[in-house]
């Protein structure tokens, strides 16, 4: 299998910084649109698909970590690239869902309520933060800057795994309240 390599260039660092800022801003603007778009009933299934995507992403992150620990760079690259693709699909699906459906209020009461909101808020905040780390990790990997890749992955991996796992937990906690 041919390995895709990109050149080492400052333009990619600028692009990563712009994209890492633009994605959360664009998502926030899109989520702020109160008028919902009617794309059909199928969009009501997107939270369930997103839960599956987050589950699979977390699994691929762990598999990718296992492969690199075994020094299987090719399998690691495939796993992590698949995790990145799934994360991108999740983002598109998440935006489509929120553009087409009202947010579902959490109906849980008692001790589970603050736990849910802690997980939700930490998930959202870290999902914004992790974008830059993941983009840098992918850039460093595909530009063969392995030392820099390893440095950024020390942050990217645990944050990304936390975001993926808490995404599943938040989904499981709110799923009984979907209409």
Write the layout of secondary structure elements.
Elements: H1 10-32, H2 46-69, H3 73-100, H4 112-142, H5 146-174
Helix pairs in contact: 1-4, 2-3, 2-5, 4-5
Query: Total helix count?
Result: 5
β content, as a range? under 5%
- The low-confidence runs, each spanning 5 or more residues with pLDDT under 50, are none
Compute the CA-based radius of gyration: 18 Å
Approximate shape: globular
Give your account of this protein's structure.
This is DUF420 domain-containing protein. InterPro entries: DUF420. Keywords: Membrane, Transmembrane, Transmembrane helix. With 179 residues, this protein is mostly helical. It has one domain (41-177). The protein has five helices and no strands. It has helices at 10-32, 46-69, 73-100, 112-142, 146-174. Helix 1 runs antiparallel to helix 4. The chain is globular.
